Amino acid sequence: MTGKQLEFTQRVNRLNKKHQKMSRGYRATMRKDGLVVMKPQRVSSAVPARVLLLTLLSVVAFKAFLLSSLGPTGYQYRIDSLNEGTSVEKAGAWVMQIDPVSQAIAVQLNKILY
């Protein structure tokens, strides 16, 4: 009796999960034997990963270019002045602080440009 109850519980749990997935959208497909089966659609994110990656790379490249052109002391002076402003400026200072990746890219840019 417990084995049958366990099988029933597992089946109910599996059906509940499938129902939750199908509530977000589904599509009908036909199998080779002619049976039409509903399959849940994958939920895509609002912002593609490629856009996030390109945004991150462009911010790092911008920071490296500024660091290369202003120098470390001038760049840090501007970051410190941003850090004394409003909350939005403080958030910008946090994003624009010197990190190892942008610093390494700035060193390579200095070798190429100067």
Automatic annotation (TrEMBL):
This is Uncharacterized protein. It comes from Ruegeria atlantica.
